[in-house]
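Design request, tokens follow.
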């Protein structure tokens, strides 16, 4: 029995859990349409996660995915953080705002968040996905014992092999094309930058787990391409950003639909490499030579600068996550988009 069959999915598509974009309304609409909807709780606390899961369950009786961040906890470095804030100072002043006097770790990693584990075990979701790494075996065993199917992002074969050894049920093969944060386990190590097609086939042949392909997939022909390579499903994130159920603000959606689709990989926004639409923050980050604070401490500064810019009517400092297929984005309700993707996949 395949992973999709066990979950009762009729459409081999997973809506990517993008923090700041995914909502219970979107996840429920996707799941109700026969695919797998997702909510991202890595940027909230246990109570926030409970509320999001409850809101999703109120809108659907079908399975959905809950995504967690499993990065190494941040290491505070006040001296480095002060240098970063000084480098951003002129940008804050341009919007008549002062930079923060200090930075904080704005959310915890699941690897040390016992309250988040308790929230998940209280009423376990059908699927839990992990990004940036893997938690310890006690957490994996607890989630599996509660009946959760576990997914983990892998950007290379070594990470996929680690996921298999840990007891993960399927890997999300995140190609270099993908929008949002790179799921590399060690951001300090060289990134192989494998593309979606090469990575998907590599993990199908040698990874030993079912593969869900992610990165640059925007329509049914893209879905069909990765299915033909042996993936059991495709994960799409950027394709859902412009949906009305999305939490992306109007400027983000407009930049996606009306812009030129250019993207860039940058660590300036949050402290970890992430692909987003090229905007003023990307340009600023590329011009600053100072070392970034640890993720997500650096994100505290990025969010503060975006808030200062938005207060003055400037939308170019937001985290507008998007993959390389951004120019193919379509604006339509999430459930309708799933239906269109299913039809396109069948025709392809």
């Amino acid at each position: 029995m395949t992973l999709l069959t066990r979950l009762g999915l009729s459409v081999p598509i997973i809506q990517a859990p993008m923090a700041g974009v995914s909502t219970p309304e979107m996840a429920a609409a996707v799941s109700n349409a026969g695919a797998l909807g997702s909510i991202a709780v890595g940027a909230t606390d246990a109570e926030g996660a409970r509320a999001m899961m409850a809101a999703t369950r109120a809108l659907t009786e079908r399975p959905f995915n809950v995504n967690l961040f499993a990065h190494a906890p941040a290491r505070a470095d006040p001296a480095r953080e002060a240098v970063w804030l000084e480098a951003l100072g002129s940008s804050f002043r341009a919007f008549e705002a002062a930079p923060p006097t200090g930075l904080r770790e704005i959310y915890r990693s699941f690897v040390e968040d016992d309250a988040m584990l308790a929230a998940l075990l209280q009423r376990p979701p059908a699927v839990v996905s992990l990004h940036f790494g893997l938690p310890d075996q006690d957490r994996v065993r607890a989630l599996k014992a509660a009946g959760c199917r576990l997914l983990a992002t892998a950007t290379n074969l070594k990470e996929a092999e680690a996921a298999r050894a840990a007891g993960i049920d399927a890997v999300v093969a995140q190609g270099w094309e993908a929008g949002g944060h790179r799921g590399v386990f060690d951001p300090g190590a060289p990134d192989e930058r494998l593309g979606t097609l090469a990575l998907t086939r590599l993990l199908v042949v040698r990874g030993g787990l079912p593969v869900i392909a992610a990165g640059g997939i925007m329509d049914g022909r893209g879905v069909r391409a990765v299915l033909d390579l042996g993936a059991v499903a495709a994960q799409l994130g950027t394709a859902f950003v412009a949906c009305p159920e999305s939490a992306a603000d109007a400027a983000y959606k407009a930049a996606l639909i009306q812009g030129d689709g250019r993207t860039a990989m940058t660590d300036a926004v949050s402290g970890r490499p992430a692909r987003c639409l090229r905007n003023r923050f990307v340009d600023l980050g590329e011009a600053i030579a100072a070392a970034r604070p640890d993720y997500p401490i650096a994100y505290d500064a990025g969010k503060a600068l975006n808030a200062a810019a938005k207060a003055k009517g400037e939308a170019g400092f937001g985290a507008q996550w998007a993959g390389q297929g951004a120019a193919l984005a379509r604006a339509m309700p999430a459930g309708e988009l799933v239906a269109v993707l299913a039809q396109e996949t069948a025709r392809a």
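Comment from the thread starter after seeing the answer: thanks! The chain has a mean pLDDT of 97.
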